[in-house]
Amino acid sequence: MDRRSCIFLFTLIFLAFSLSGCYYFSARNEMKSAEKLIAELKGAGGEKLVPYEYCSAEKFLEISKMEADEGDWKQARGFAVRSKSAAQSGLAEAKKK
User: Fold this and answer.
1) DSSP H/E element including 70
2) How far apart are CA 47 and CA 21, in angstroms?
3) Helix, strand, or coil here: 50?
């Protein structure tokens, strides 16, 4: 192999590993954020005031953790984002009541 081919392969491998790591950190940050929002929602009485949003947020976070355990970080991030969205919606509704 010539030098250009080696550099190209090294660059390709480096990018593949760095991009896969991005999903890992992004998913972990989204999951932590979702956990905090769910705790806030629980503290605001979300279980009784907005049960649909509360249950949705918890279940999406649970699925996110399962996907993370399987190593599917892209799906884990997606479910964590949905969990955050449900928790934010629940907090907004709980504050109105």
Assistant:
1) none
2) 35
3) coil
Distance CA 37, CA 32 (A): 9
pLDDT digits (tens, 9 = 90+) for 48-88: 999 999 999 999 999 999 999 999 999 999 999 999 999 99
Q: What is d(CA 85, CA 89) in angstroms, rounded to the nearest whole number?
A: 6
Q: How many residues does the chain have?
A: 97
Q: Looking at this protein, which amino acid is placed at residue 6?
A: C
Domains in the chain: boundaries: 23-96
pTM for the whole structure: 0.78
Alpha helices in 1-97 (DSSP H): 3-43, 46-49, 51-69, 73-96
- Give the CA distances from residue 64 to residues 40, 45, 46, in Å, rounded to whole numbers and listed in that order: 19, 23, 21
Would you call 2 helix, strand, or coil by DSSP? coil
46, 96 Cβ separation under 8 angstroms: no
